[in-house]
Specification:
The structure is a single chain. By secondary structure, this protein is an alpha/beta fold. The chain is built from six helices and ten strands, in the order βαβαββαβαβββαβαβ. The strands form two sheets. The chain has a seven-stranded parallel sheet with strand order 1-10-9-6-2-3-5, with helices on both faces. A three-stranded antiparallel sheet has the order 4-8-7. It starts with a strand and ends in an 8-residue tail after the last strand. The mean pLDDT is 97.
């Protein structure tokens, strides 16, 4: 299995800017052809610069529908929630209409039913089965992506698009599954820092022994800094 295309930049800021430009181009093309752009965003610290760059771009934001790739099970407003960064970058300054952000319902008491409702919402926006225009992914130091982590049952599911994981680093998570990620039109990875170098090399090689390596490399691109790409040929 071949890995994604690797796009190296000098530093993390340049990688984030390039990723934002790529997403903006995809948004403009999708809106021009179909009138809507469906995007799923991952959490983590690396995407903050990317979101800030996106917020400053002239895009048809009223036609952009944003979903989450994954989210920690925590109350609304909890600092652990991934959606906080999206709200701060895109909702607070009035860039994205409030109704165009679709947070994962991780505060619900019945998480399995909540995951099914989120999958149904994806279907309304992106067809049945859902085909998002673009999913943004990160890369963990253990090779996980989204919240598909080594050894978790959610990483084995092929019959649903949204799942709930066991506890991982202090939280259960809700996550898109491999079928939902693979079905998307594009997969964009943003990876920065020397701590990701080993796993990025394995991802680039299509190493299916790590969860990230099981995401299809077709239609996938990695924007990374040179530190993260140090071990990539």
């Amino acid at each position: 299995m071949s890995g994604p295309r690797i796009e190296r930049r000098d530093d993390a800021a340049a990688a984030a800017s390039a990723a934002a430009e790529h997403i903006a181009g995809a948004a403009r093309r999708a809106v021009a052809s179909r009138g809507v752009f469906t995007l799923a965003l991952s959490g983590g610290s690396t995407p903050a610069r990317m979101l800030a760059a996106l917020a400053g771009m002239r895009l048809p934001w009223n036609r952009v529908q944003i979903f989450q790739v994954d989210e920690r099970v925590a109350p609304a407003g909890d600092p652990a929630r991934n959606v906080n960064a999206v709200r701060e970058a895109l909702l607070a300054p009035g860039v994205l209409p409030e109704g165009n952000l679709h947070p994962m319902p991780v505060a619900d008491g019945d998480l399995a039913a909540a995951a099914d409702r989120y999958a149904a919402a994806l279907g309304v926006a992106a067809g049945v089965p859902p085909r998002l225009d673009l999913v943004h992914l990160g890369l963990g130091d253990d090779g996980h992506t989204a919240s598909l982590v080594p050894g978790d049952a959610a990483a084995q599911l092929r019959d649903r698009d949204v799942a709930v994981t066991g506890e991982y680093r202090g939280h259960r998570r809700m996550t898109l599954t491999f079928p939902a990620l693979d079905r998307a039109g594009e997969r964009l990875w943003l990876v920065a820092g020397a701590g990701k170098a080993t796993m990025l090399a394995r991802l680039a090689a299509g190493d299916r022994s790590i969860p990230a390596g099981r995401v299809t490399g077709q239609g996938a691109v990695v924007f990374c800094d040179r530190a993260a790409a140090a071990a990539v040929p």
